[in-house]
Amino acid sequence: MYVNNVVASANDAGFDILFGSDYEPAGTLGSAFNTFIHEIAHLLSAPNFQNNDGATKSNGSLTDAALAAQQNNAGLIQQHCGSLIN
């Protein structure tokens, strides 16, 4: 079944991956897989995958460290899974 939107979250209390929510439109099946793989990488503590990619400032925007971690993590996903999800 194709699901066109995904919510995935990882936090200190545990990991929840929910499909079918309208919270975060995935756009394409590839972007849905990208989100899924990203959260599974957190769950499995994938080598070099950074867990601090959701830290926010008091105004709710991501910290510079979180943005850098997201860029690192996105690069790892593309490097190791890009041919699968693109």
List keywords for this structure.
2 helices, about 90 residues, two-stranded antiparallel sheet, alpha+beta, globular, 2 strands
What percent strand? 5-15%
Shape: globular
Largest sheet: 2 strands, antiparallel
Tell me the radius of gyration.
Answer: 13 Å
In short:
With 86 residues, this protein is of the alpha+beta class. It has helices spanning 29-44, 64-85, and strands spanning 6-11, 14-19. The chain has a two-stranded antiparallel ribbon with strand order 1-2.
Explained architecture:
- With 86 residues, the chain is of the alpha+beta class.
- The chain has helices at residues 29-44, 64-85, and strands spanning 6-11, 14-19.
- The protein has one domain.
- Helix 1 (29-44) packs across helix 2.
- The two termini are 18 Å apart.
Question: What is the element layout, followed by pairings?
Answer:
Layout: E1 6-11, E2 14-19, H1 29-44, H2 64-85
Antiparallel strand pairs: 1-2
Helix pairs in contact: 1-2
